[in-house]
Amino acid sequence: MKPTAVLPHPFSAWRLALLLPIFCLSACGSLLPKPPAAPTRHTLDASASVVDASAIQARATPSATTATAAPVLVVAVPRAAPGHDSTRMVYLQQPQQLRAFAHNEWVDTPAQMLAPLMVRALQDSGAFRVVLLAPSGAMGGLRLETELIRLQQDFTSQPSRVRLTLRAVLLDTATRQAVAWREFDETVVANSESPDGGVQAAHQATQRVLQALALFCAQQVKR
After folding, report:
1. For the stretch 46-55, what's the b/e string if a residue is b when 16 or more beta carbons lie within 10 angstroms of its beta carbon?
2. What CATH number does domain 56-222 carry, 3.40.630.10, 3.40.50.10610, 1.20.120.350, 3.30.420.240?
3. CB 37 within 8 A of CB 45
């Protein structure tokens, strides 16, 4: 007598057919690489007050700080040199070789972040009746155009340091003639050999440049 074949229960086979793809997907999913972690994003705005207005006013002419005599200043968004026109946080390990941190970046381009900080610093200086960010429908007697030359952390020496360089040109709006220009360059030693240490140094360098820029513009109003 031949043995009787045992057939699977129809319901069991149906359930197995449904569960098998789920098991396969779960097993395959555990083997897939995990997505990369989101980068840490940093700003340049480290302080509510970026300039010492009393120091600027003491070194500028008193008449330039009065509401009736002070001119209106329009500030253009800074241009950026190649290599500094993105949100990447750049650094040097070899001279003239820019690299970017893989897991740290700026929330916006440094030039875009500098624009409102410059407006606030120049307004707080007290040397201008009002400071406007271009494009603006209002006309100003003076226009400030700037270029971000560099903002980078330099690891070619220890401890590392952050260097910020900004070139500024003050223009007479009516004649489009340059009134004066200056290049501001600040270097600040980082408190750690890391992107976070570089960010803190960048904050200090930014404040120093803004203070010097506000004083420079106030002194041009004096002349």
Report:
1. eeeebbebee
2. 3.40.50.10610
3. no
**Peptide bond before residue 159 is cis, with ω within 30 degrees of 0:** yes
Mode of pairing for the β-strands spanning 161-172 and 97-106: unpaired
Mean pLDDT by 10-residue block, N- to C-terminus, for the chain (223 residues)? Answer: 54 57 57 75 74 61 57 96 95 93 96 96 94 84 96 96 98 92 98 96 96 95 81
Kindly list the domain boundaries of the chain, sorted by start residue. Answer: 56-222
Sign of CA dihedral 192, 196, 199, 204: negative
Residue 162 in contact with residue 201, Cβ under 8 Å? yes
Answer for the pair 54, 215: CB distance below 8 angstroms, yes or no.
no
User: Are 71 and 128 in contact, with CB atoms under 8 Å apart?
Assistant: yes
Question: In this predicted model, what pLDDT tens digit does every residue of 129-142 receive, in sequence order?
Answer: 999 999 877 778 99
Mean pLDDT of the chain: 84
